[in-house]
Give the backbone structure.
Amino acid sequence: MEHTRRLLDIMARLRDAERGCPWDLEQTFASLAPYTLEEAYEVVDALHREDFDDLREELGDLLLQIVFHSQLAKEQDLFDFESVAAAIGAKLVRRHPHVFEGVDFADDAGRLRFWEDAKRIEREQKGQKPGPASILDGIAGSFPALMEAQKLQQRAERYGFDWPDAEPVFAKVEEELSELRQARASADPAWIKDEVGDLLFAVVNLARKLDVDAETALKAGNRKFTRRFRYIETQLAAENRSVEESSFATLDALWDEAKRNEG
């Protein structure tokens, strides 16, 4: 734990009112929030690339955010890093009685029900139930939209609100696409937006039924688009041309060429 202690000491020094760093001293929980989210995404990116040297570094950057928030909380007598570690340790033991207490669950469904019940009890103990109980309680609205949709659907599935297989979800996607066409014909922006949301939600549901993580799949699609578009730029640059001065037909032909080259 020597290096952990050193990291905590460095953070405290950076926040020292007299000898600290001006930038670090200006930070608040709110100002750090975007950096925390950014570092989490960079960890995921390193995982997707299977770059484990970079993963080690990005995990360190994410850990810094946890240490930074903990230091701010310590200064305000809210909590400290040690209590953060203690809380997650206690939570892991509490949510895994089959590992630490010898409880025997009949199947995975029983284990998942216990996990969800444990989370619900924890929310109740923290007074986080302002209204009637819902099986959707506890799914953070701050998640990326695709991830949030998938989690909502997974939670509903555990309680029986789900199609039995992928086939009817294909039909649902087609239904939502048809409704989007109707909305487009109406030229009503609010209706169009609403139907786009329904279509995306249905596509996430289809991905889930096909055992595909929608967030990861879209990330892969983004990388594929980037790779092919850069191929277009490279080919045009070799001919001293740019994307801006090329016709769509030219760009589309190069796109198809990029696809063929990927095999």
Observations:
- The mean pLDDT is 91.
